[in-house]
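Curious: explain these tokens?
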Amino acid sequence: MKTSINDLSFLSSSVIAVPPLCRNNDYSINLEENRRLIKHLEGGGVQTLLYGGNANLYNIAISEYSELLEMLESESGDQTLAIPSVGPFFGNITDQAAILKGSSFPAVMILPTLFPARSEGVAQAVRHFVERSGIKAVLYIKDESYVSPRIVSELVQDGIISWIKYAIVREETSEDDYLKELLNLVDPRMVVSGIGEQPAMMHLRDFGVTGFTSGCVCIAPSKSMQMLNAIKSNDFESAESIRGRFETLENLRNAYGPIPVLHHAVSLADIAQTGAHLPLMSDLDDDLMDPIKEASLDLLEFDSD
């Protein structure tokens, strides 16, 4: 596992994969299947792994958190940056910060929540985490009311933010006053689009963020990387062509839940067996398995073209 971040170039050199966490049917972490998924991503050129919402770390037990960290350290390649998450609640953040103190992880994401939370309280939690763990935080902005751009800029100025995942969903991606204000207050090179391939081109091309996160990259890492490189080269026609092939699986995720659909998709494409959903999540209905499998296999075949 890569243990240092020397500059922000890694945010634009690799798609940031947000994979599920493979578990056994008794909910324990499955080392072998997580290894399979990581190697699939690395084989497609992905060098940054972010374990957060898709890994359902909202519901992870504090008692197994050390095991998660050990798995990420042991199974990630030497050039792969693995970033775990903490939270979303302050008690979790505090306990997980203590576990992380002295570890090799150069950045850790704080999972967002809206209740009970206020913008100023979020800032206090971020500061407490960084002070207690000694590790810079990745700020995950998923809703306007979570934290204001002004407070974000204060945290950035104080040197405690590693980078920012921006994931507020808009009916019209091009109309986003919050993102415009945020990018006027912080360096756009530390902000990535956090909603997968679909809005990524507009966020990078029109707003100037530096990279993007993806769940569906777990199915088609090579093509997701090609899309990133096409955007960086201003080859928007190629980028749009690739983006369109991710749309079917992304539409299923939007309709039935991004976490459970991706969880099933990775298994149904036989990339890795993701196993049982950790509650409070659960399996989707059986009648959804065929369309998820079809979309996943189509995307996997596209990846091998």
Summary: The mean pLDDT is 97. The chain has one domain: 10-303. Residues 10-303 form a domain with the TIM Barrel fold (CATH 3.20.20.70).
